[in-house]
Amino acid sequence: MKRTDNTPPSKKNLNIEILKVLSMFMVVVWHFYVHGLKIDHTEIQPGSVSTLNFGISQLIIVICSVCVNLFVLVTGFFLINKSFKTIRFVRIWFQTVFYSVTIDLVLYATNSETNLISNIWTDIMPICNNTYWFVRQYLRLIIIAPIISFYLLRLTKTIHHLIMIIILVIVLFLTIRNPFCDGRYISGYSILWFVMLFYTGGYLHIYGTSNKWTISTKTFCILLFLIWAYTIFVLVYKHLYNSDILHNTTYEYNTFPYFLSVILFIIIKRSNLNGKRNLNIFYDIAPLTFGVYLIHDNNKIRTLIWDQIYSWGALYDSLLLTPTAICISCIIFTICISIDYLRKELFRVLRIDILINLFSKFIDSILIKIWNKISGILKITTNS
User: Distance between CA atoms of 54 and 227, rounded to whole angstroms?
Assistant: First the structure.
């Protein structure tokens, strides 16, 4: 695969690139189980193949529950000391619109889509609709990221630690479903949660990946086992006693997955991976990972993959469930990476990347003029 990113590998952090790829692959696996398999936890039959699959599936789901948090943590870690650049927003916006409109056009050409005009109008405003919930919140995060960075970099170490303690307390309350903090206002899909993840990533950039932190793979495995055991216990308890006293919060990004994602981030970030040539492929794959999400989790493609191509729930009683889940996820991931590589080459050949850069500079010039006018008004008001 020809590298089209102008940044040489030596200028990038291999650990961060691996985190990007890993988080997006976990997204695909997560979607296989959540959208494709649609496990019915009420049909637990001790001694059957489905029981074995149930236990393994829950373990995989617990592991992959870190996917979204991990991706946003990487963003916070990377952008915390960076100034705002319009091109970051424009690139994601344009890539999202490209895939949404292209998919609608293809479906319309094959008579699978009828409301083309209304769909395209929705497609061009990803920040205002729920077609891609992650893109909507991610673009909003990019907009407010400079404000978060500005204040975070100017806070004292004590205040940093205090804010992190507050975040940890909030997550603990969300995890145990405290009546005063039940997740309605800080759901794992909210912009407030993304801000908390961004802050955590920035905090880890400043303080949290040194060897002083006694966090190891063993720590991750122990916590993973405890969360998995708790999940199994809660689901079996609810099945046997038909009770909602206990809550399974494993599937919610703002609970157990937060702790797992932070620990996994620290472990991979601290790993000595740079210089290993067999891992250089991650430099090529990482810039294409966002396309994986945009393609396979498009509303229409999601329905096609998980509901129309095959009835994945039929595998629930098969010993082939787990290997099939991994293989199908690898196939989907590889196909989407290949498609996004072609999209990137198309943008390069048609000079669309140049147009995106020019448009971003144009927006930057407008924002600078607006900021200068506001600054001038504020100075006049202050002097008077």
Answer: 15
**Residues in Cβ contact with 89 at an 8 Å cutoff, skipping those fewer than 6 apart:** 139, 142, 143
26 or 211, greater pLDDT: 26
Average pLDDT, integer, range 125-137: 82
Average pLDDT over residues 215-238: 84
The answer to whether residues 123 and 97 touch, using CB atoms and an 8 Å cutoff, is yes
pLDDT band, very low/low/confident/very high, at 114 (cuts 50, 70, 90): low
| Helical (H) or strand (E) element with 218 | helix 217-241
Q: Is 34 exposed, middle or buried (0-12, 13-18, 19+ CB in 10 A)?
A: middle
DSSP for 175-203 reads HTT-TT--SSSS-TTSHHHHHHHHHHHHH
pLDDT at 39: 65
Q: Do 199 and 167 meet the contact criterion of CB atoms below 8 Å apart? A: yes
Distance of CA 49 to the CA centre of its chain: 32
Q: Which two tokens stand for residue 83?
A: 């100034």
| C-alpha–C-alpha distance, residues 375 and 382, integer Å | 10
Q: How far is CA 245 from CA 93, 170, 209, 213, 329, in A?
A: 43, 21, 38, 36, 35
Q: How far apart are CA 155 and CA 311, in angstroms?
A: 53
Res 45: pLDDT: 47
Report which of 3, 18, 1, 86 is spatially closest to residue 274, judged by C-alpha positions: 18
Q: Which residue has the tokens 């909210």?
A: 190
pLDDT digits (tens, 9 = 90+) for 295-343: 999 988 999 999 898 888 888 888 899 999 999 999 999 999 999 999 9
